[in-house]
Amino acid sequence: MEMKKRITEELRGKKPSEVAELLLDSCVCADGELDGLTDDFSSLEVLSVCNTGLKSLSRLPSLPKLKRLELSDNSLVSGLDVLSVKCPSLSYLNLSGNSIKDMSALQGLQKLPGLQSLDLDEDEEDEESWREKVFELLPQILFLNGFDQDHNQAPDDDDDDEAGPHGDDDDDDEEDEDEDEGSEDEEVGLSYLMKEGIQDEEDDGDYVEEEDEEDGEGGVKGEKRKRDADEDDDDEDE
User: What is its main location (predicted)?
Assistant: First the structure.
């Protein structure tokens, strides 16, 4: 697909000034130049133009808010100095898979003070010396191909996001434990009360039965006394 047409599709009805991320990977560059990308993309922060046959950045528009630029697997050789003019806020640049062999081609990146991370094809014959030269040429960068000067790996972009939820999960776990403990206490208390209630009912039943028995015995004795009295009255009459 042609780059210009792809840009139109990526807009999805939005205005160029409303777009913050634009992915144009594997589309076709006309004559190796950027086509369809204009200064109207003033809010663009992420631009990916990988594997498009790009040969030149001469038609790169002004993208003042661009922070991340993916240019891997193209045919760039030089002309990187335009980035400091067109993309002054750039912090990450991926140039791996291009044809940049001369260290002097990177000099244009010296004017990007905010550039912190750079991906670039290594010199396999002298990798360690090559890394030292790049860090020396571009002292502002912190990570080269994902590692700092001491070969410590760069942190993932999602690390900070993960830390928050994990912390929240711990708090949630503690709350859940407290709730579980509370539930158990309530269940124990409820069971105790139920048992006490049942026992009280049983005790009350026993008490009522005993009273009933006593009342029954008393009634029998009363009737016996009444009969005895009546018999005595009859004897006296005779």
Answer: cytoplasm
CATH topology for 3-154? 3.80.10
The answer for residues whose C-beta is within 8 angstroms of residue 141's C-beta and 6 or more apart is: 115, 116, 117, 118, 134, 135
d(CA 100, CA 93): 14
43, 20 in Cβ contact below 8 A?
Answer: yes
Residue type, 206: D
pTM: 0.66
CA–CA gap between residue 235 and residue 226 (Å, rounded): 15
For CA atoms 109, 110, 113, 116, the dihedral sign is: positive
